[in-house]
Write a structure and sequence with these properties.
Strand content of chain A: under 5%
Order of helices and strands of chain B: EEEHEEEHHHHEHEHEEH
CATH architecture of chain A: Orthogonal Bundle
Structural class of chain B: alpha/beta
Oligomer: heterotrimer
CATH class of the largest domain in chain B: Alpha Beta
CATH superfamily of the largest domain in chain B: P-loop containing nucleotide triphosphate hydrolases
Number of strands of chain A: 0
CATH superfamily of chain A: MetI-like
Structural class of chain A: mainly alpha
Number of strands of chain B: 10
CATH topology of chain A: MetI-like fold
Largest sheet of chain A: none
Radius of gyration of chain A: 22 Å
Number of domains of chain B: 2
Number of helices of chain B: 8
Helix content of chain B: 25-40%
Helix content of chain A: over 70%
CATH topology of the largest domain in chain B: Rossmann fold
Amino acid sequence: MPNRSLFLKILSAVILFGAWEIAGRIPVSYAFPTFLEAMGALFRMAGDGTLWTAYAETLQPLVVGVAISAVLGIAIGLWVGLSNVFDWLFSPIFIVMQAAPLAALIPLLVLAYGIGLTSKVLVVCIMAMPVIVLNTSSAVRNTPESMKEMGRAFLASELAIILKIIIPAASPVIFAGLRLGVSAGFIGAILAELKITPTGVGDIITYSRSIADYPSMYAAIFSIILLAVLFLNVLEKTETVLFKGNQRGYVSD
Amino acid sequence: MVPESAVSTRNISKNYGDVEALRNLSLEFPRGQLTSLLGPSGCGKTTLLKIIAGLLQPSSGEVEVNGHTVTGPGPDRAFVFQDFALLPWASVIRNVAFGLEMRGVAKSEREAIAERYIREVGLAGFEHAYPHELSGGMRQRVGLARALSVDAQVLLMDEPFSAVDEQTRRKFQEDLLGLVQNEKKTFIFVTHSIEEAVYVSDQIAILLPRPSRVSEIIRPSGFRDKGADNIRRDPEYLDIVDQIWASLRSYVE
Amino acid sequence: MTVFGYRLPGMSSLIVWGLLWEIVGQMGLTFFIPPLSEVIATLFAVIGTAAFQKALAETAYAFSAGVFFAITIGIPVGILMGKNRLLDELLLPWVNVFLSAPLTALVPVLMVLFGFGMKSIVITTTLFGIWIIILNARAGVKQINRSLVEMAHSFGASPWNAFTKIYLWAALPEILGGVRIGIIRAVKGVIIGQLLISIVGFGALFELYSANFLMAHFWAVLIVLFALAFTIAEFLAYLERRVAYYAAKR
C-alpha cells in the first residue's frame, strides 16, 4: 500500500513539526522560536534574496572541495586497490584519517592558508576524501574473483580486465563512497563557515544569533539540513536507477 | 576404440605451501568426447580444470592441448563457470559476445555470432535482458553460449549445473548430450554427482583426495546410443553408478 | 605487501611516513611542520601538563557521557522500531534524515539552548553517534530468522525469555556494528563540538596553541588524539570480529 506509507510519512512530519510548534509556543526557551516563525523567516529570506546569495557562497567551497576529493579520491582509491605496494603505503593513512577527528586540523589549516576559500576547500577535502578513497579501494579489491578469472579465461588483457570488469563491478560501491563523501563534505563546509569565518549560510546563523533573531537562525539551519538531505536522496535514487542490475546480479543470491 | 587425445596432462602436481593438492596426475582426454572429473569435494578436480584452462600454474608437470604446451589461457579452450561469472551490468548479448570482444571481433559481427548462440541455447528473445532478470538456469545458458561463441575446440565446464534446480539440471544434461554429438568439441566436465557423470560421460576419471590422484577410469559404452530417455533405466548405467559409489563411499565423511 | 618473501605488517608504512615527516621537518621548509622527533619530545612534555590532562579529562567525560546516552537510548529505540511496524514507519524517515544531515549546523542551536558548556558538547556527541546505532539495532532485529522466533515459541519461551535469549543475541552482531560506527562518529562529534564551542577541552587547547604558534605542541596533541581515536576504532572492530563468527552463519 503506497498510500499507507505516504500517509505515515506525512503524519510523522506533522507530529515532529507540531511538537516543534508547541514547544516554541510554551516556550521551552527564549531561544526557541515556533515552527511557523522559523518558516516565516525562511520565506522572508528566500523572498528578499539573502538566502540565495548565502547559498551561492556556501556551495562554492563545497562544490570545489567535493570535486577535488572525487577526482583525486577515486584515482588514489583505484591505485591503492590495484597495487599491493600502494595499498601498503597509503591505506594506513586513510584508515587513520577515517577514524580520526580531522576537524582538529582546522586551526592549523587556518594558520597555514588563511581564512579564505583555500582553507574552506581544504576542510571539505579532508572530510570527504578518506571515505571516497577507502570505498574505491575496497570495491576494487572485492571484485568477485570468478569474474576476473572469467576475463582471463576469455583472453582479456590486464587493461581490459580493469576497464571492462573491475571498474564496472566496483562502480556501485564507488558511487556510494561518493555519496558518503558529499555527506561528509556538507559537514566540512558548514564547519568551515562556523569555525573559520562566517560566510554564506554560516554568516546568517552567526549573525542572527548575535542579534537574537532566532527565527532566522533556525530557518537557515533548517534550510541547510533540508538541502543536504534532499541532495543526498537524489544521489541515492540515481544510484538505484544506475546500478539496478549490478547489485542483484551476483549469483550468490 | 578410443580416439586420439585432444588434451593430455602429464605428471601434474600442485602445492599450496605445504598442502599437496594434486600429486603426479596424468590423464588423457579423447577428442570429440566428454570426460568427467568425478570425486568427493576437496579432491582437486576444479584445481585440475583450472590448470588445464591456464588459470592456475601447476607446480610441476605440463598440459598439452592439440600438441601445444599450455602456458596460460588460450583461444583453443573456453570455460563455463560454476557461479556463471556473468557481468551484471551487461545485457545477455554483451555477455555472450564478451569473449569475441576480447579477441577484437567487430561489434556487428560479434553480435551476429552471439545472437546465433543465444538462439541455440534456447534464450531467443532475451538478448537484451540483464542477468538479474534471469533464473539460475537461464544464467548458465548465457554462460554456455558465451563459451560456445568463441568456437574453442575444448570446452571446460566447472560443475556447471550445481547451482541450478533439479529439473533444470536434467534438461541441461539432456541438452549437453546433444551438444557433444553435434559440436565436435572435446568436453571436460567437473562434477560431484555420480549419476550426472555416468549419464553424460564417454569417459569418467575418478579422483581420490589428499593428495589427489586418479584411482580409476571408466568408459561406459553400451547405453550411449540408446537415446537420452532410456539411459537411466539401462542396467549398465545402474551398475556403473553402484560401482562408483562403492569405491567412493569410504572417502565420504 | 611482501618484501623478499617476508610479509610486512599492515600498518608498518606509517614508519615510512614518519621518517618522511622527520626529513621534511629537518629541512625546515615551513614552520608548520616541525621535525617528528621534536613533536614526540614535546608530546611527552605536554602529556604531563595540567592543561593537557584537564582537556583530556573533560573530553573523556563528554565523550563517555555522550556515548552512554547514544547507546542506552539508541539500542532500545532501534529494537522497538524493528519490532513495531507503525513506530518504524513514523520514525525511520527522521532517523535517515539525521543520519546523513550535516549535524554541525545544529551545534549553534545547542549553544543557544544549552549554553557554551559541557552540556552542549555531550548532546553534540550523542547526536553524532545515536542515529547509526538506532538504524543498526533495527536492522539487526529485522533480519532475525523467523524460524528462530517460531522455534522459541514452539518450545514455550515467554516473551521476555524470547527477547533476552533470542532477539538480543540474534541481533548482537548488527548492534555491535552500529555501536562501533556510532562511537567513531561520536569521537568526531566531541571534537567538532569542542572546536565550535571552543572554551573547553581540546578545543580550548587548540586555540591556545595556534594563537601562540606552538606548532610542535599542536601536532603532539593531534597525534595523541588520532592515536586514541584509532585505538578505540580498532578495539571495537576487534570486539565485533569476536561475535562475527556466527553473524554469517545464522
